[in-house]
Structure formats: structure tokens, C-alpha cells
Amino acid sequence: MSQIQLHKIDLNLLSTFEALIEEGSVAGAADRLHLTPSAVSHALGRMRSQFDDPLFVRVGGKMQPTPRALVLAGEMAPILRSLRRALEPAEPFDPATTDRVFRIGLHSMPAFIAQVTAQIGDAAPGAMVEWVRIKPTNQNDLVDGLIDLLHVGGPAHLVDGIQSVDLAPITFFSFVRRGHPAARSWSAEMAGRYRYLQVAVEDTGGTPIEKEHRVMNRPRTLGGKVHDFPLVGPVLAQTDLITTQPSIAMQEIWKRYDLQPLEPVAAPKDFPMRFAWSARSATDPGNVWLRETVIAAYRDHEADVTAQMQAVAIPLGA
Questions:
Q1: Which of 62, 175, 234, 305 could form a disulfide with 259 if both were Cys (CB 3.0 to 4.6 A apart)?
Q2: Which fold has domain 101-169+272-306?
Q3: Which first-to-last residue range defines the signal peptide (predicted)?
Q4: Which stretch of DSSP H or E encloses residue 174?
Q5: Residue 288, phi then psi, degrees to nearest 5
Q6: Alpha-carbon distance 308 to 293, whole Å?
């Protein structure tokens, strides 16, 4: 027997076949499908020709399926169910009832992470938020669906399959312990007398702060490195080191360890920031809700923190 040409199969024929199997008559199938009996009879004729089998024969006033039709019915039932599920409109996303796990790639920003975790928990009590460390494979993980939302700093190229939204450029401040000698007469010359603390969050061969110091010909000497932002506070509190960091990363730290913000000697003025997500998830209602929630909170948080620091930062003298 020749092989069925699947591309020639009309899906309407499958629905008609299903109705004939379940109703047992042309009239019943026509009523169920809102068709005329002649239309159903015509569809049955096409199926008989396609499958080279009568499929249904009249026995005692009722259409009885042939053995071939029974085999087809058993094979097609789960396929038609799956097809209906696939073609049904997506269920609306309801934060109040969801149990999804949301994964967000972000540098360690304790105050912001705590705020957003609480905010999502209030709106979506059954959801879980997993904060993922920033690492070189994050973009691939985003494309593969292992991360829902990624905070991207700097002019990094985004791989294919990623969409993003621009954020306000980061504002940088320098920080020293309260009572640091440099804070009494803050200037580029004074800053050059002290060594710096660097946060080595990625092994990228240099930070934007170092690059800006080179561009401005204001060399700095490193006196220490830590692997994450929360370690900056206790180190500065016990030393005369200086550090220059993004405002949002220091929101909790500068207050807890009573650090003094300073206008930086050298820092990028237009360091770009973005939130990114997989293009495959661009219209997913849950992902849209997550993006809107996190991005709005980030923008408000970053603006508030920067304003607080600007109000007390010591300006750079001559």
C-alpha cells in the first residue's frame, strides 16, 4: 500500500473522523460539527479514498467502524488531544496562584535582592526566586531558558536570541571609612597617596574603573581585592583603602559600615546597563510580569540610592 502523504491530509477530516467514531452516524457527526450531512458524507468519501478503506459500514442502521478505523481511532485520539492543548489560548498568568521558579542573574546587591524577593513574595506567594551569580556563561544560559532575566553591565555584545532594555547609566562613587585622612581634603592628589580596593567579580582582565584611570592618566595602586561587594564594607572599615563602586551595589554597605561617599577621581560617566531576556520568552506572560516587576523596582531603587549618596558625597577638590 502506498505511504500516506501527510501534507495532503486535511485536519478537518480528522475532526470528522473523530465525530463519526464517537457519534456512530453521519447525522450525529454533522450535528456535532455544525455541518450538513452531505458535507460529512463528502468528507468520509475523501477519507475512504485517502486510507483505501471503507472505514465505516452500515450495520443495523448504524455506522460501524472497520478494523482499520478502530486502529486509526486509537492512534489519533491522543494526537488530537495534544493538538487541542497546543492550539488552545495560553492560560492567563496569575501571580497569586503561580508556583513558578524565577531565576535572575544579578551581581550581589543585598538590599535590592531583599526588596525584590519580598515584593515578588507578596504578589506571588507560591513562586520561588533564585538569584544566580554573574558568570561568563550567563548569556548562553539565558538563551537556553536556564535564567529568566539577566542584569548586563557594560558594552557587552548580546548573543543572538536575546532581547534587552536599556537602563540609566550607573553612577559611581568612591568610598572610604569615616574619618579617613583623605576625606578632609579630597582631591586627585590626595587620592593618589592611598591604595585601592577592587571587587573582582569577573575575570575579565580589567574593570571599567581601571580603564578610566588609565584614560585620565591618574594611575592608582591596588592594595586589595575581594570577590564580592558585601566584603567591601568590613575591609574599608578596618583600613585606609579607597574603593570606587556603583551606587546600587553599595546601598546597604555604606550605611552599615558608616562609609563616606566621595566624588570619584576617575569613573565612567556613561557606563551602560541593561536587563536582558531570551527572545523565546518575550511574550510569555509570567516572564513579562517578572520583567516589569524587577525592572521597575531596579529603576526606582537605583535613582533613590544615587540621590542619597549625591546628597552627602564630598566633592572632588582642585
A1: 175
A2: D-Maltodextrin-Binding Protein; domain 2 (3.40.190)
A3: none
A4: strand 172-177
A5: -60, -45
A6: 23
For residues 244 and 209, is the Cβ–Cβ distance under 8 A? yes
Report the distance separating Cα 247 and Cα 171, nearest Å: 6
> What value, to the nearest 5°, has the Cα angle with vertex 32 and ends 31 and 33?
95
pLDDT for position 208: 79
CATH number of 172-269: 3.40.190.10
- Pairwise pLDDT comparison (4 vs 189), residue with the higher score: 189
How is 73-95 classified by DSSP, letter by letter? HHHHHHHHHHHHHHHSPPPPP-T
Residues in the chain: 318
In this model, does residue 202 exceed pLDDT 70?
no
Per the listing, cell 540621590 goes with 307
CA dihedral 137, 115, 201, 232 (to 10 degrees): -170
Give the Cα-Cα-Cα angle 268, 269, 274 (nearest 5 degrees). 85
What one-letter code names the amino acid at 164?
A: S
> Are the C-beta atoms of residues 281 and 163 closer than 8 Å to each other?
no
